[in-house]
Each structure stands twice: as C-alpha cells, then as structure tokens.
Amino acid sequence: MLSRWMSGSSRNLDREYNCTVRLLDDSEYTCTIQRDAKGQYLFDLLCHHLNLLEKDYFGIRFVDPDKQRHWLEFTKSVVKQMRAQPPFTMCFRVKFYPTDPAALKEEITRYLVFLQIKRDLYHGRLLCKTSDAALLAAYILQAEIGDYDPGKHPEGYSSKFQFFPKHSEKLERKIAEIHKSELSGQTPATSELNFLRKAQTLETYGVDPHPCKDVSGNAAFLAFTPFGFVVLQGNKRVHFIKWNEVTKMKFEGKTFYLYVSQKEEKKIVLTYFAPTPEACKHLWKCGIENQAFYKLEKSSQVRTVSSSNLFFKGSRFRYSGRVAKEVMESSAKIKREPPEIHRAGLVPSRSCPSITHGPRLSSVPRTRRRAVHISIMEGLESLRDSAHSTPVRSASHGDAFAGPGRGGRAESSERVAVIADESYSPADSVLPTPVAEHSLELMLLSRQANGAPCSIEEEKESEAGTPAAEAEAGELRALCPGAGGLGPAQAQQVNKFVLSVLRLLLVTVGLLFVLLLLLIVLTESDLDTAFFRDIRQTPEFEQFHYQYFCPLRRWFACKLRAVVSLLIDT
C-alpha cells in the first residue's frame, strides 16, 4: 500500500500542464510545465523565446474564472496560482512602463514596448488630443506599411486601419496627410522610436486603470504610472501624486487607502472603493510593486508589506524583482549583436485590428447617435458639478481633455479622448463618432443599473478566452452588484469576514488561556524566581490573592465536590 501511495504521488508530481501565452503581436507561445514549476521558470522560457534580455519591464498576466486579473508571481508555483482548469491561458504584457522608453538599450525591447503602447492606444488607455492621435497613428502606419505609394495606397487607405476605439473621417484624413508628407523615408525602427518619444509625453502614458468609486459614490479610475499615482474621472486626469509623496497603501475588504504626505507636513488619507475584495487586493499589490520598482534605489530595500496593522489579520506581500535603477544599470552592460526582430506586419489580429485591412466600426443610426451625444454631455456636466472627495492637486489639462460646451459642437470634432479598454466605455468619449450597437446598449443598461458607466473589458475577453457576451455579463455583475443576487465575490467576502471573526475569537481565547496559566503559576506553584517573587510581594497581588482568588478557588472546589458526589450517588 505504501509503495502504491508513493508511486501515485510521484505520478502526481511529474504531471505536466499545457500553457498558452499570448504575446504582444497576438501570436501564441505554447509549452508544458511541471506541477511544481515556478512563475520565474515560465517567464524565462518566454524571454528566451523572444530573445529578450531587458525583461524586468514585462510580466505575465492571467484572468481567473471570476474575470479578475492577476499578475503571475514568479516566486510561487504556476499551477497553485491558476484557479482555472488546464490548459492554462496567459498573456505576456508590459508590467512596468519604462520612464524613458526611447532610452532602452536594445531595439527588441523598444519594439515590444511599442506593441504594448499601440494596444493601449487602440483600447483607449492612452488619452490624447486629435493632433497627437493623428501623429501616433501615422507613425504606426509608417512602421507597418512603409512609405506612401500611390499605386498601393488608394484614397482613404488609412480608414482600413483601426487605431482607436472610434474614428472620424477628418482624423483619418489627417493621419494620411502626415503619413504622406512628413514620415517618408523612416525605417520601422525609426518610426517606432518616434512613436515612443511622443507617447511618453502624454499624461496617461503607462496607465492601466482600476475601476473604483470615491467616498461620494462618483466613478473613478485609479492607476499607477512611472511617475506616481493618478486618479481619473470621466475623460480627465484629476489628481496626480508623486511616488515620494505616497507613504503607505493598505486595503480592507473592498476599501483601498492611500496615505499621502505632501509639503508643509500635510498628511492626507485617500479612500476609494473597488468593485470586489479581489479587485481591491489586486489594486493594492499593483501599487506596492509599482512604488517599489520606481521609488527604491536597490532591491535590498524592499520590505514585506502588510495590508493591516494587526499581526493576525490582512494579507502580506513582497515585491520580488529588481528596481528600475538596477535594471537600467544592468541594461547598460549588455554587449551583444542586436537580435533579429520578426515584426508582425500585416497579420490579422484578434484584439488590436490596427494591423488588419478590415472595415471601420459600423455606425449607429442617426437617432441613436443623438442619444449618445446627449448622454455624453450629461456625464460631463455631472462630472463638472460634482464635488471630488480627494482635493489633493489637480493635474488635468483643460485644452486636452475638457468636453465641448453647449455651443461648441463644431470644435468637438477636433478632440480625441479615449481611455481604458478595461475601464472606460467608448461611449463616454467626447469624440462625436458613433459607437458600435452592442457598446451603446451595454452602456445604457449599466447606467440604469448603477447610475454610472460600467466598463467594457474588450481585451480581458481575449485574455480569458471567453465569449464576448459572457465577459460583458461578468463585468456588469462585478461593477453593478446591486443588479443581481449574492454572487461568488460577495459569498467569498462573507466567508472572509466569518474567518476573520473566528480568528479574532481564537486569538482572544488563546490570550485568556495564557493569562490563566500565568495566574495559576503565580498563585499555586512553588517557583521562586525573581520575577515571580517581585509580583507576589506587590500589595495589589496580595489583595487580589486573598480577596478574590482564594474565595473563587473555594467556591469552585465546593461545586466540583458537589458534582462528583452527585455522580457517585447516581
């Protein structure tokens, strides 16, 4: 029997699991890992496949069955982190955006960061004005199709590409004009470098928004950038806090706390509410990792962080990688021949159709277009009139992100404001181009259910490998919990609360038991150490011993004798 158990255990340990990792160019890397393989092993396999040395900026992300995103922890087993059944599906993404992407040592690293920012632009995470949007899109065109050729590129050729969640014809003409006249002769590497230099100057460079609400119930999006912590509301960046001003981050349940220390010893605690406890924990872990990566000088300064001040409660987490300064110093020492780059070219893409030749998004009817414009204006008006709960410092640029006024509809076509595929609904953009039918219906449904726009997680669908309808329904349940019954996240929260109460009771009983043992030793034992002698000689202890403890002992002994005699008689 023992040999059978040992053989079964060995087979279980030797079991292999299939993993599929979707790369930034939408290709897939498939491998098999052992049950006890750490995240670092899988990440090293990917980096070897990509011939990547400056790998500290990247990470592996996956989505659990509850549609919650996670970054794969390299110090833990891959199988234990994945709650889904094999085969496992993950995504290779930029985790820490370089402070200066143009200063990266190798072209292969710059190319991968270029692919990530191009995804950010398409999915709406990168806010920009129309002039900046046109220039960025022209750089993408030049990098992917080369110089303008009248024989290959007929009139309206830029409309065959999808750079943003929504396009306008005027914007497409501007993109084609820049591509024709200003970028001729640029190689793909040069166009990608210029793209990175321009993207770096934008306010929302490196933003990966987390949907939350402030204490007033206003929808907000929290994000971490190379330069600090930002708060986004509507289509504006309303607050910016530098990393050296953030003193502490913690969470309890769905509540996230950010402790800020500004000039003149001004201390502020910012409070936000995540949709679920798991989302709040993910937000907290991302904040801890980003602050350690960008703020610290050495990885030896990294400390284990607890989400609570009590030793028996909360989560503990420690960033396990190198910090930005160490990564830059290590990159400067790289000496090898530049690796060959296999650019994606004109390959169909699932989640980033900017490199496809498909048609643009279909327009909605004129009456539906009017409804979209009205809902946008109402949202901007309510945002303008609302009182924010975090009056720290405003860093928004009105000329870049302010919505058009009642009399400025003609000017609205000159602006692009799109943000966050995971967080922002494309219908909330002030760009007057109509949105797709299903996006509008989901937006109207979410406004009725929650009073605020819910997100449409397009890229999450591709990462999780689930149908679009299921992803939309899961997102609606996550961000609008009042619309349904007790979901898995709420049940998990109740279970965590019950476990926390039980843990508190257990610790209390344990402390009382220790105190009781100490009292018995003091009163009943013959131990004559200096510590016990000093306690016994105090007047307070003598009074307690003769007035309280001795009568209690006699009463307890009397009751015990009565119970024993009763048992003997029966």
UniProtKB/TrEMBL annotation:
<dbReference type="InterPro" id="IPR014847">
    <property type="entry name" value="FA"/>
</dbReference>
<dbReference type="InterPro" id="IPR035963">
    <property type="entry name" value="FERM_2"/>
</dbReference>
<dbReference type="InterPro" id="IPR000798">
    <property type="entry name" value="Ez/rad/moesin-like"/>
</dbReference>
<keyword id="KW-0812">Transmembrane</keyword>
<dbReference type="InterPro" id="IPR011993">
    <property type="entry name" value="PH-like_dom_sf"/>
</dbReference>
<dbReference type="InterPro" id="IPR019749">
    <property type="entry name" value="Band_41_domain"/>
</dbReference>
<comment type="function">
    <text>May be involved in regulation of cell migration. May regulate cell-matrix interactions via its interaction with ITGB5 and modifying ITGB5 cytoplasmic tail interactions such as with FERMT2 and TLN1. May regulate ROCK1 kinase activity possibly involved in regulation of actin stress fiber formation.</text>
</comment>
<dbReference type="InterPro" id="IPR014352">
    <property type="entry name" value="FERM/acyl-CoA-bd_prot_sf"/>
</dbReference>
<keyword id="KW-0472">Membrane</keyword>
<dbReference type="GO" id="GO:0031032">
    <property type="term" value="P:actomyosin structure organization"/>
</dbReference>
<keyword id="KW-1133">Transmembrane helix</keyword>
<dbReference type="InterPro" id="IPR029071">
    <property type="entry name" value="Ubiquitin-like_domsf"/>
</dbReference>
<feature type="transmembrane region" description="Helical">
    <location>
        <begin position="501"/>
        <end position="523"/>
    </location>
</feature>
<protein>
    <recommendedName>
        <fullName>FERM domain-containing protein 5</fullName>
    </recommendedName>
</protein>
<dbReference type="InterPro" id="IPR018979">
    <property type="entry name" value="FERM_N"/>
</dbReference>
<dbReference type="GO" id="GO:0005912">
    <property type="term" value="C:adherens junction"/>
</dbReference>
<dbReference type="Pfam" id="PF00373">
    <property type="entry name" value="FERM_M"/>
</dbReference>
<dbReference type="Pfam" id="PF09379">
    <property type="entry name" value="FERM_N"/>
</dbReference>
<dbReference type="InterPro" id="IPR019747">
    <property type="entry name" value="FERM_CS"/>
</dbReference>
<dbReference type="GO" id="GO:0005856">
    <property type="term" value="C:cytoskeleton"/>
</dbReference>
<dbReference type="GO" id="GO:0008092">
    <property type="term" value="F:cytoskeletal protein binding"/>
</dbReference>
<feature type="region of interest" description="Disordered">
    <location>
        <begin position="389"/>
        <end position="409"/>
    </location>
</feature>
<dbReference type="Pfam" id="PF08736">
    <property type="entry name" value="FA"/>
</dbReference>
<dbReference type="InterPro" id="IPR019748">
    <property type="entry name" value="FERM_central"/>
</dbReference>
<feature type="domain" description="FERM">
    <location>
        <begin position="17"/>
        <end position="298"/>
    </location>
</feature>
<dbReference type="InterPro" id="IPR018980">
    <property type="entry name" value="FERM_PH-like_C"/>
</dbReference>
<keyword id="KW-0597">Phosphoprotein</keyword>
<dbReference type="InterPro" id="IPR000299">
    <property type="entry name" value="FERM_domain"/>
</dbReference>
<keyword id="KW-0965">Cell junction</keyword>
<dbReference type="Pfam" id="PF09380">
    <property type="entry name" value="FERM_C"/>
</dbReference>
